[in-house]
Specification:
single chain; three-stranded antiparallel β-sheet; Porin; 48% strand
Length: 396
């Protein structure tokens, strides 16, 4: 669906910038993909009734939030990066002023997801369900280099320009894939869980929603520095608590909290120290990863008029640093740096409820249609995506 292009000199700049940011961008995108509150939401089904929900998401981002919480363009910290001996130590042999040029880059991430959720009312107060999905992301890059002077006597096989020289150094010496706009596609982590309504009254209900997330999503390619993934990929236990309350005949309120217990796993990555920009392929190994246990809280208010409901939501999430360990004892501090995060998202939604009209035989669709837009208001160490959700739910 999406196409990507790059300037003729994109290899030179893209490689260096990505090497700096590769392990920063990947968790930054994942951070905002925790789960809906309670994983499967607060919806309850009558005993013996089923529901199917299809949700599509369109995601795009051209900004990110750094470790200080400042908003900036994706990869902006690496615009104007001088390709000198601090990047390529071999240039030091040609004098202190030797440089292959200065970088210039812009990037825009887009993505799509489709999720199918199926629920069944086991009892009047217990609904069970599962969710499967598929997703893809595209990192569209425009990169170039303002050429410097290739030092006399410097030879890179097959290279006649500074751009080709940099690309050759990165692929031949460091073993990275050619740098270009990058795609990622994978099945998403399935969810299996239940919703237990243990407290209810005429105008309120409280639901406990434990959910298991099974890590099947494709991990990031350690040799593709421009790739962005949007899935967790670990086996987790999500513990959600949701409270809904009818404030007036038109106004309602949803409060929720969720804590995620993430199990340790293994990931193939290049062990990297905190101050390194490029890592040789010889340091690629199977690392043990212990990801942070994040929590999130949500508040949502809705106003209903006839078959329509307008809603506004705020969602806050926080997570500490991930931890890695190398079986060979290599320094992995560079992978851990920038993995802690928080973010505040804002949502505005519009829902059409067709069930009352269906029961009155005014139309033939027994379900809901919802359109929701979300944006990132504040964050740390994450991308700043905007998301458009289109959801269709039918009951039977």
């Amino acid at each position: 669906m999406f196409r990507f292009w790059f300037a003729p000199r994109s290899f030179c700049r893209g490689v260096v910038l990505a090497s700096c940011l590769g392990f920063f961008v990947i968790p930054a995108v994942q951070a905002q993909e925790l789960a809906a509150p309670g994983a499967l939401g607060a919806d309850m089904l009558p005993k013996g009734r089923s529901a199917v929900r299809l949700e599509t998401r369109r995601i795009w981002a051209k900004d990110e939030f750094d470790s200080h919480g400042d908003r900036q363009a994706l990869l902006s910290e690496y615009n104007g990066l001088k390709l000198n001996a601090s990047i390529f130590p071999a240039l030091g042999f040609f004098g202190p002023g030797a440089s292959l040029g200065t970088t210039d880059l812009s990037a825009r991430m887009t993505g799509t997801q489709a999720r199918l959720t199926v629920g069944y009312g086991l009892t009047e107060d217990i609904t069970v369900g599962f969710q499967i999905g598929h997703g893809e992301t595209h990192n569209r890059v425009r990169a170039s280099v303002r050429p410097g002077t290739v030092p006399p006597g410097m030879v890179v096989p097959g290279a006649t320009t500074a751009t080709q020289a940099v690309q050759g150094l990165l692929t031949n010496v460091y073993g990275y894939k050619p740098i270009r706009s990058s795609d990622w596609e994978s099945d998403l982590d399935p969810l299996i869980g239940l919703r237990w309504r243990f407290d209810k009254g005429e105008n309120h209900a409280t639901v406990f929603a434990p959910t298991v997330r099974i890590g099947v999503a494709r991990q990031a390619d350690p040799n593709d520095l421009m790739q962005m993934v949007m899935a967790d990929g670990t086996d987790d236990l999500l513990l959600g608590l949701l409270h809904t309350r009818k404030l007036t005949p038109q106004w309602d309120l949803l409060l929720s909290a969720q804590y995620t217990l993430q199990t340790s796993d293994h990931v193939r990555a290049r062990a990297r120290s905190a101050n390194e920009l490029l890592v040789p392929a010889s340091r690629l190994e199977r690392l043990t990863r212990n990801r942070t246990n994040p929590f999130e809280v949500t508040t949502e208010t809705g106003y209903t008029l006839g078959s329509w409901r307008v809603s506004g939501r705020l969602e806050y999430a926080h997570g500490g640093k991930d931890h890695y360990s190398s079986p060979s004892g290599q320094d992995v501090s560079g992978l851990e740096a920038g993995s802690d995060f928080h973010f505040l998202l804002g949502y505005v939604g519009l829902t059409w409820n067709g069930i009352p009209g269906y029961l009155r035989k005014e139309h033939s669709f027994p379900g809901f249609v919802s359109l929701v837009g979300a944006t990132t208001l504040k964050a740390k160490n994450t991308a700043a995506p905007n998301t458009l959700y289109l959801t269709v739910t039918t009951v039977f």
